[in-house]
Amino acid sequence: MATTGMPVKDLPATFRDAITVTNRLGLEYIWIDALCIIQLDAEDWSLHSVTMAKVYSYSAITLAAAASSDAHGGLFRERNPASINGAKVNLKWPSHELEGEFYLVPTDPWEKAVANSPLLKRAWVFQERLLSRGTVYFAHDMLYWECGELYASELYPEAGPWDLQYRYKRFDVADRLPSGVQSVEDYRFKHVYTELLTRELNAEKTVTDEEMFLYVWASVVAQYSVGKLSKETDKLIAIDGVAEQLTRIVPREQYLKGLWKQENLPLSLLWRTETEEEPPSTRVAPSWSWASVYTPVDFNFLFRAQTEPKVVTKVIDIITPYNEPESLEISRPPALVLQGPLTEVRFRSASRSALGPLHSNWWKSHNTIRNRIKFLKPLDLTPRLVFMGKGLKADYPCAIWLDREVPKNSRIFALKIAEADIRHPWQERLPSECGLLLITDQERGTFRRIGTFEIAVEKMKRDWADQKTSFTAVSKLRDGIWSDSGIDKRFNLGKDEKDGYTIKIV
């Protein structure tokens, strides 16, 4: 460890520039992770990684090198004045009685300069942005500012046109959600997070504190998951500072492997991935946690639900074998004991009907199916979910998302979690059901998650391959889709005629 200091000229360009800015701001101290933490020293990293959250939370300002891919890129750039002042033009438009001098400026420079910058591709940076009071981004074209109240730049010093009221909103995001809470994709989210911390909920929205917490945390996870990590074991560590800050609202003991043990915990299980990849070599979370995968995740069902989701599965117990650091590989993962509607299913892929485009890209992420049908054009395929012994199959608007490769000859089960009205591109709002796809584990009644599903029961069709139910009315089949499943005792811990089967997910 250095005790006598080091010459500034020997530091990388970004460090030197950050020191220059700090001096010009009249501040005395600066924290640079790479300097203040001994690199490649596991003990020093373990000690300081926990306190880094406080460093960013209490800092006067955070400096972000948005235009640099590494520590040698620096903060400062030679810039074109037109990018800040705009290009002046003389415009005459007689039909609109418009004439005079105007300035042409970009409508939303944030996306290119900040959201798509190399810096924001790093998962650790997301936590640092949320925890900081305010961040100045040194981008390729100008300076940008972000805090809990404002997104601004040199071009728009009093807030840019990319503020919430001008922001693009997906057509299927529910109006019932709090203002600004949606599955955003441009990284402008800090104002919503700050609103949750200050508990200043919008009085015009009928949303409880717990509901607000659910949607904000879902947005936190979705945006964090896009970032890249160099160490698999950092998956939960790199977001732990945000979780710690949120203990102002929810007790720390309610935080478990990336989720919160609240009443709406079943809804938190409805995360999904768009691509299925090989499982990470180091397991830091159980299969029911989004932290068990290393691909971007989202909570699409929550944000698209036009009505408040009705939860039909309840948490009976949470089994935690022992307390262990978030960064270590787990040998016996915490288990969720759930009770809800359960039935056995299988996958089938077939030619697309004329109802509309594919709702899911499931087919291209599942190696087994893909290899069998590689001679067909991808756009001619759509996933189908067949309900075993029910005489029904679900295609469009059926959606299947797999987290991981399904082992050969696995028995697959569907656990219904919630139902709500969903808006579809080619349909009106449809009553839809969403849940988990599971495969059996070694112990009785124990499962591992492999994905999620979403179906519209009223659009399900008869499965003519099921000879046992071929003469039963389709409407009757639909009514009984989750009842009388006849699940073998090997695959459940108990059955309640009203509430369904009790199972354990690890």
TrEMBL record:
Pfam families found in the cross-reference section: HET
Organism this protein belongs to: Fusarium oxysporum f. sp. raphani
PANTHER family according to UniProt: DOMAIN PROTEIN, PUTATIVE-RELATED, TOL
The protein's name in its UniProt record: Heterokaryon incompatibility domain-containing protein
Domain Heterokaryon incompatibility: 9-128
